[in-house]
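Letters spell out the chain; backbone shape is given numerically. Take this protein:
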Amino acid sequence: MTRIKVCGLTRVADIQFVAASGADAIGLVFYEKSPRYVTIAQAQCLLAALPPFVSVVGLFVNASAEAVRAVQQQVALDVLQFHGEESPEFCRQFGRPYLKAIRVKAGVDLLQCAARYADAQALLLDAYVEGTHGGTGESFDWALIPHNLPLPVILSGGLHPGNVAAAISAVRPYAVDVSSGVEAAKGIKDAAKVAAFINEVKHIEL
């Protein structure tokens, strides 16, 4: 069964609906330039509404180690997600499992990335869009993903209810990650789109 992460949550109602709909993980964005950014206080309120057995992923983009630790100390994160140019040494220093996001385009050697971040839980593969770090709604050519990657793949980038089944069939990822594809507006999830997305993932037969 392909796992599902819904990222960029900013409202308690969305957290509750996403969890009730069957998502395996939720993502909170601690990147101030993102329209989906949440403060530590907001994150604490959101997680107070989260039921058990849903993993919490904290997303950072080129943050300082101090900033990551400040969030870690006050927000119960299960996994860290690094979406910038962080080194493997940076990512592994926090004593938490981590995901390394790679923005995919022609010429990016994903096998080399997997070797460099060998202790990551997975590679999160997103679309390369100049000047941004995810949440763009853009997809990429899934044929660029090697079939022999030694790390689990979390597929991101432009996924929505209309294409996620095709994406899973093509890539066979460990998990899919959605943000803008299930939104009514940036940071505001659309309950019908969330339900449709999760339903598509759970009913695909590989």
